[in-house]
Amino acid sequence: MFRNGIIFESHDIGPHLQWLTHFSRHLAEGIWYPRWLADTNYGYGSPDFVFYPPGVYYIGSLIKLTGIDIQKTVALLFLLASLLAGFSCYVYGRNKWGKKVALLAALAYMTSPYVVLNIYQRAALPETFAVALFPLGLFLTDQAFGKPKWRIGLALFFTVLSLTHAPSLLLYTIFWFLYVICFLLKYSWKAIVMTIGSGMVGLGIASFYLLPAVLEKNLVNVNSMRKVAGGFQGNLIWTPVSWANGFMRNQITDIFTYQLLIIIVLIIIIFFCCRQEPKKMKEAILWLIFLGTLSFLMTYPSVKIWQSSRTLQMVQFPWRLMGMFSFGVVAMLAIAINRVLNSKSQLKLILSLILAVIFLANAGYSYNLSRTLSGFNNPGNLQKAALNPKYKSEDFFNVIKLALDEKEISKLQGRVEYLLLTPEGVAAKPLLDQPPVSIVQGKGLIEVDQWSSYNRIFSVSATEDTNLKIGTFYYPAWRLYVNNLPYPMIVSNDGTIELKLNPGDYTVRLFYSWTYPFLVGMITSIISIIILGIYWYKFT
Q1: Which DSSP symbol is given to 299?
Q2: How far apart are CA 468 and CA 61, in angstroms?
Q3: Angle 444-450-456 from CA coordinates, rounded to 5°
Q4: Distance between CA 217 and CA 51 in Å, rounded?
Q5: What digits encode the pLDDT tens for the residues 142-176?
Q6: How many other CB atoms are found less than 10 A from the CB of residue 68?
């Protein structure tokens, strides 16, 4: 990826390039939390980071501030996500399987097909970071049951996961809660409640993001996410529906089937090694139950469960569970390696060779995928892409080129799901090359004094009753002042801001502020930090 550049054929690389450019630019302007992306949608703006977690883009912005260009910044972010996956898996496994086996498990997790697919073909940047964090969360949970000080780390883990990827947070939290409840048979109810409470404190710290994301979603076109690529029903593995997502059917289904075959082989190996000591099968059986549950939820027989919950449908793709599923397969592989290494069977060498083949098959998939997909630094690849009808018809290639050119990025439209809704309830449509302020009705002179991302000031001399349209989509965080006094805004039919002025001279100021859900979220975050501080003081 560093040699050839980012993979320009990756599905979501365009949006992540745009988001990182906008986000880092606003941070450089002194905006500590850029919730509104002012330059997107041809300058109409969009509240993308009210709803999309900002964590990865803070990291990317810090890297970018060192002088690294945006393309290499994204490549470095994917590299960091991959290394984090290995580190997270190693931390979880070293006390369970020993350091050597944990190291092999870490390498297997880094090269597991779904993680590699996320990096090279899906370009699912935040999701890759979230998948990388899963084992670390499990490690912190196990430690938190018996050691109160580890509950601080667990709280911080949930804060980080909340600010990384929302669908992964939802799925992981559901399974994490069930996992914790299962330990009621081993630990006291107090330890269980305190562990769950630690997770809730972590979510509370992230309330400055979570509350607005939940309470303000009715303002944008976010419900369109349920219909992406055929919706949840079209993205269930082995689905019979005619509109099934081709990508899911060809790529994810193949990976899932391949992983199922591996699980069967691993179970046979573990059973063979533990046939004299059935108690050693317990860990593998628990992981098998976990993998079986995930398999059911990713395949078509679970369609009724997904139909019953509109919240679950916001996950979009049931196969996002492949992140946890991949870790489960790696855990089974680690258990099998551990059992074979401690086995005295005459077939130890053969079993070891089988495990080596499984391990190398994962690495082989990673290698092949990284070699076959085209990078942006290869001129031959660029020339081929420019001639490819697919890119011409969808304008995909030009979007990537503009996203890489920070001076031209304002010419790109934002994500459909974060378009503001008009008063009629439909997604607003931004228009290219529109003035920042225009007269809809009446007469007057307009002079723009300042037009920054979050603060716009202009002067108006109206000679008669005048209606003005500001080329900015309405959002409750915007505040309008005329001659230093609050002034009512009108939402036009196209979703932009209008104001009516009588004859006279005016100084108009429009600036982006806090919404009430964001204010409540900030208060909740501060209270949660204080609670965590008290806990820190008490147990450290």
Answers
A1: B
A2: 36
A3: 80
A4: 7
A5: 999 988 899 999 999 999 999 999 999 999 999 99
A6: 14
List all residues 6 or more positions away from 358 whose beta carbon is below 8 Å from its beta carbon.
Answer: 262, 265, 266, 333
- The H or E element containing residue 137 is helix 125-146
Residue 76 tokens read as 């470095």
Q: Which of 135, 108, 101, 105 is nearest to 340 (CA)?
A: 101
CA distances from 532 to 55, 136, 427 (A): 20, 19, 41
Q: DSSP 3-state assignment of 1? A: coil
Structure tokens, 173: 């939290």
In this predicted structure, what is the pLDDT of residue 388?
58
**Structural element, H or E, at residue 195:** helix 189-205
Alpha-carbon distance values, 243 to 249, 292, 317 (Å): 11, 26, 14
Burial of 92 from C-beta contacts in 10 A (0-12 / 13-18 / 19+): buried
Which whole-number Å values give the CA distances from 3 to 71, 116, 398, in the listed order?
11, 17, 22
For the segment 433-449, what is each residue's pLDDT rounded down to a tens digit? 889 999 999 998 999 99
CA distance readout (Å), 487 to 166, 422, 481, 501, 509: 36, 20, 5, 10, 10
Helices then strands, counting H and E runs in the chain, come out as 23, 9
Find the radius of gyration of the CA atoms of the chain.
26
Q: Can you read off the two tokens belonging to residue 316? A: 């979009």
